Amino acid sequence: MIIHPQETELEKRIETFVVGRDVEKGERLQWIVEGDRVKASFLLEDEEGEGESEGLLISEVVTPGFEYCDHEFLPAERLEDLVGREKGEELRWLLSPLAKGK
Question: How far apart are CA 62 and CA 34, in angstroms?
Fold first, then answer.
């Protein structure tokens, strides 16, 4: 999921997609998140009878100009500012435990 906070709409656009190999079904092999965006990810539950999860390896590459001091975990209050109270409550479970207490 990517939230685009730089857009001027009252509730910011939320882009969602599945990371996977089935490009014909709309899955993406990778995704690029530009600066000033908010991102979150999670594993989907296995379909019943499919056996054990294959899991997902998430890696992140940053480009020149990236500074770790610019990285921050999104607190719940800021999430609500971006997407509204109702949607913020719905998405709150995606927040890092490091940000929930802020």
Answer: 10
Query: 71 to each of 1, 19, 32, how far by Cα in Å?
Result: 17, 23, 16
Q: Please, what sign has the CA dihedral across residues 10, 77, 40, 54?
A: negative
Decide if 43 contacts 55 (C-beta within 8 A). Answer: yes
What pLDDT, in 10s, does the model give residues 42-62? 877 766 656 666 676 777 888
34 alpha carbon, distance to own chain's centre: 12
**What secondary structure, in 3-state letters, does 12-51 show?**
CCEECCCECCCHHHCCECCCCCCCCCEECCCCCCCCCCCC
Question: Is the separation of the CB atoms in 95 and 15 below 8 Å?
Answer: no
